[in-house]
């Protein structure tokens, strides 16, 4: 078994499992070794059942009242039922088609039962509890069991086994970092860290493994960006770009005036474009701060100066949306500037027509997804390249786009709130501008956290908003039903909602597994108000702008990082009307509620991310990631800020002594591997 062998070379992984693993992006042995758990199951201390625990996973210790009874359900399923007493409190237990469990119990002995506590018809109840003897429970309680991302038909047990078997047959290479770094930081070997990340024996061990992997990811990320900078530092700016009265006139004709922050960013960009050197600038602006119009204005100056420019968006939906805005704006300005669009799902003939537009117009504005870089397309005279929602792209993709032209100016736009110091590390010598202020017409979004019992009220509210001609997003964590969690999924939810509202509203469904063309169509229908309620996964998190939508309802809100919730909330409140964010938190315990309550207190993305981190105990660090920045598998720039700083220092030291890594051949080759392995997050 080699690292690059396909997963079906693992014993016990057949054709069916291979297909399912492929669906999760796991193709090779290396992929599966680096397919890290999403969280860990830690069996809790036993507790006494109580109302606060309803909805949570708990363990209870008790004695069966009498031996379990077996009966058949209406659909011929065997049901095993028993009642257990925890001191004076009784809990009903049921199992389906699991009659063998009956023989587990010795009379008069205590057992531990693990499962989700429910309250039903005046009784506590647990369905399908896992049963342990006391001795066995003491043992499992110490372990952290990996929980993986799954897809329908793939069980957690199967993945766990496959990962274990892969480790038996294959070893990751150690020593990818220079020896002095390994020893200075007393790192555990890489391969051991990866194994431990899957199967930690203690929490401390897991933390160490995580830090090590995070360090390594960030080390190579920073190393790459520093090398890139070396290549582009101080290139002379031979473009002749100036600002034009037409741009000024267009700004004056907009239905709104730009905020001071927007104006100051625009003036930063203009001096970059006219400066002596080719520039690189990061524009940070919280969701809804109005970055798109700034991109357009910059590209307008470039077009009026007779050059081409391109903007790359991470999803087709977003690229399409930019295309619509840009074509509208150009039309309103009365200028004759062609706009071209390239996305993966376009027909060949459409792409040809667009390419012709580009070839024939030296002042063309180009918009696209990563289709801009992945299809061998050539653009002659790019003077400016903009990456929107930059964190969704790998470094390499950003660089590839710049390579299309003749060293164009570069702007990256990001809604990820990163403190300046971290931004300087991650973006090296890029200049940073920020848009802090939101447009003046915005009413603050009203946010609430509600429990399952309020669902009917929430739906009534949704109806009322639709009656006012507004639109609604409802976000679910999953695409389809899953065997390991009870979280809402888009597919079933959409059906249920149609029934609930008796087909009164037009309801659309959107998720990442749909074909791009389907996604575009749904998004377009939503933008055109042919859809009232859009039930979606977090694919709408990135950049989408439908100002008529006023409600963002998020199911199982506790399963999302606050940074992601903040991004989702930013999809509403984009017009003049009052907007609302409803966080549905059915199974909340107090700590989860505290976390969500941060969303009530602030609209500031950075503050939210920081508070979130403060509130989490070490045990919560794993489940939810702050946000999917920079395509890291493990690292998180907030949680691992210390490692980030360390890595930056180490990289700078190496680069200073050896700017082109001539004395570090191993590092060079690992870096190349690292770059090809970078995956594209969508
Ligand atoms: P983001 O920064 O999240 O990318 P967008 O560029 O999508 O935000 O802008 C959100 C909405 O705000 C758009 O409908 C845009 O036209 C509008 N907008 C942008 N600037 C202003 C402004 N200064 N005043 C009012 N509305 C604005
Ligand atoms: Mg945007």
Characterization of this structure:
This protein has 682 residues and is an alpha/beta fold. Among the domains are: 44-141, OB fold (Dihydrolipoamide Acetyltransferase, E2P) (Beta Barrel); 245-435, P-loop containing nucleotide triphosphate hydrolases (Rossmann fold), CATH 3.40.50.300; 446-602, Rossmann fold. The protein is 39% helix and 17% strand. It has 23 helices and 22 strands. It has a seven-stranded parallel β-sheet with strand order 12-13-11-14-15-10-16, with helices on both faces. Helix 19 (562-569) links the parallel strand 21 (549-554) and strand 22. Helix 7 (203-232) crosses helix 22 and helix 19 (562-569) runs antiparallel to helix 21. The longest helix is centred in the N-terminal third of the chain and has 30 residues, at 203-232. 41% of the residues are buried. Residues 617-629 and 678-682 have low confidence and may be disordered. Adenosine-5'-diphosphate binds at residues 256, 258-259, 262, 285, 287-293, 415, 439, 441, 543, 545, 547, 574.
Question: Summed up, what is this model?
Answer:
The chain has 682 residues and is an alpha/beta fold. It is 39% helix and 17% strand.
Write the layout of secondary structure elements.
Blueprint: H1 15-23, H2 29-33, E1 39-41, E2 57-64, E3 69-72, E4 78-86, E5 89-96, E6 110-120, E7 123-127, E8 130-132, H3 134-141, E9 145-147, H4 156-169, H5 179-184, H6 190-198, H7 203-232, H8 245-253, H9 260-274, E10 280-285, H10 291-304, E11 308-312, H11 316-333, E12 339-342, H12 348-360, E13 365-368, H13 371-374, E14 382-387, H14 395-404, E15 409-414, H15 420-427, E16 431-435, E17 446-450, H16 455-467, E18 471-475, H17 490-500, E19 507-510, H18 516-527, E20 533-536, E21 549-554, H19 562-569, E22 580-584, H20 590-601, H21 605-615, H22 641-657, H23 665-677
Helix pairs in contact: 6-7, 7-22, 9-10, 11-18, 19-21, 20-21
The structure holds adenosine-5'-diphosphate and magnesium ion (MG).
Magnesium ion binds at residues 291-292, 388, 543.
């Amino acid at each position: 078994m080699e690292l690059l062998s396909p997963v079906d070379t693992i014993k016990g992984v057949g054709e069916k499992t291979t297909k399912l693993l492929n669906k999760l992006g796991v193709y090779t042995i290396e992929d599966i070794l680096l397919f890290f758990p999403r969280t860990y199951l830690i069996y809790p201390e036993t507790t006494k059942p109580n109302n606060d625990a309803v909805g949570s996973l708990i363990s209870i210790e008790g004695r069966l009242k009498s031996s379990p009874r077996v009966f058949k359900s209406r659909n011929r399923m065997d049901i095993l039922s028993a009642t257990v007493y925890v001191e004076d409190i009784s809990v009903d237990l049921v199992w389906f088609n699991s009659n063998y469990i009956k023989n587990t119990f010795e009379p008069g002995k205590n057992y531990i039962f693990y499962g989700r506590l429910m309250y039903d018809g005046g009784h506590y109840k647990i369905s399908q509890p896992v049963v342990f003897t006391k001795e066995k429970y003491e043992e499992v309680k110490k372990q952290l069991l990996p929980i993986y991302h799954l897809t329908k038909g793939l069980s957690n047990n199967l993945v766990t086994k496959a990962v274990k078997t892969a480790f038996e047959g294959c070893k990751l290479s150690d020593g990818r970092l220079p020896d002095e770094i390994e020893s200075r930081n007393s790192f555990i070997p890489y391969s051991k860290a990866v194994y431990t990340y899957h199967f930690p024996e203690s929490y401390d061990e897991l933390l160490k493994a995580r830090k090590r992997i995070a360090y390594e990811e960030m080390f190579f990320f920073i190393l790459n960006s520093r090398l890139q900078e070396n290549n582009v530092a101080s290139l002379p700016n031979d473009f002749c770009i100036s600002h034009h009265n037409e741009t000024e006139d267009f700004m004056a004709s907009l239905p709104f005036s730009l905020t001071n922050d927007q104006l100051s960013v625009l003036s930063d960009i203009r001096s970059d474009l006219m400066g002596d050197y080719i520039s690189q600038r990061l524009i940070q602006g919280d969701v809804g701060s109005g970055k798109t119009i700034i991109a357009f204005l910059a590209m307008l100056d470039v077009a009026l100066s007779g050059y081409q420019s391109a903007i790359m968006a991470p999803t087709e939906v977003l690229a399409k949306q930019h295309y619509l805005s840009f074509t509208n704006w150009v039309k309103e300005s009365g200028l004759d500037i062609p706009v071209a669009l390239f996305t993966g799902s376009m027909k060949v003939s459409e792409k040809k027509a667009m390419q012709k537009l580009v070839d024939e117009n030296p002042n063309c504005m180009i918009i696209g997804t990563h289709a801009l870089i992945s299809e061998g397309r050539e653009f002659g005279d790019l003077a400016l390249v903009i990456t929107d929602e930059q964190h969704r792209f790998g470094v390499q993709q950003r660089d590839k786009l710049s390579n299309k032209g003749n060293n164009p100016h570069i702007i990256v736009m990001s809604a990820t709130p990163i403190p300046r110091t971290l931004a300087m590390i991650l973006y090296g010598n890029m200049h940073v501008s920020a848009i802090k202020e939101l447009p003046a017409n915005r009413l603050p979004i009203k946010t609430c956290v509600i429990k399952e019992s309020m669902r009917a009220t929430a739906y009534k509210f949704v109806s009322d908003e639709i009656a006012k001609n507004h639109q609604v997003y409802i976000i679910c964590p999953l695409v389809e039903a899953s065997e390991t969690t009870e979280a809402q999924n888009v597919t079933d939810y959409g059906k249920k909602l149609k029934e609930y509202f008796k087909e009164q509203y037009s309801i659309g469904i959107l998720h990442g597994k749909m074909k791009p063309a389907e996604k575009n169509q749904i998004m377009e229908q939503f933008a055109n108000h042919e859809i009232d309620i859009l039930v979606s996964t977090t694919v709408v998190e990135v950049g989408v702008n439908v100002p008529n939508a006023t409600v963002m309802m998020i199911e199982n809100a506790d399963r999302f990082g606050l940074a992601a919730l903040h991004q989702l909330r930013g999809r509403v409140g984009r017009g003049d009307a009052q907007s609302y964010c409803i966080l549905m938190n059915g199974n909340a315990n107090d700590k989860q509620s505290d976390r969500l309550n941060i969303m009530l207190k602030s609209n500031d993305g950075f503050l939210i991310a920081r508070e979130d981190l403060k509130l989490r105990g070490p045990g919560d660090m794993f489940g939810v990631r702050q946000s999917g920045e920079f395509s890291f598998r493990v690292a998180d720039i907030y949680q691992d800020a210390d490692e980030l700083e360390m890595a930056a220092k180490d990289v700078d030291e190496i680069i200073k002594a050896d700017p082109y890594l001539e004395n570090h051949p191993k590092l060079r080759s690992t870096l190349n591997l690292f770059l090809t392995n970078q995956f594209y997050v969508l």
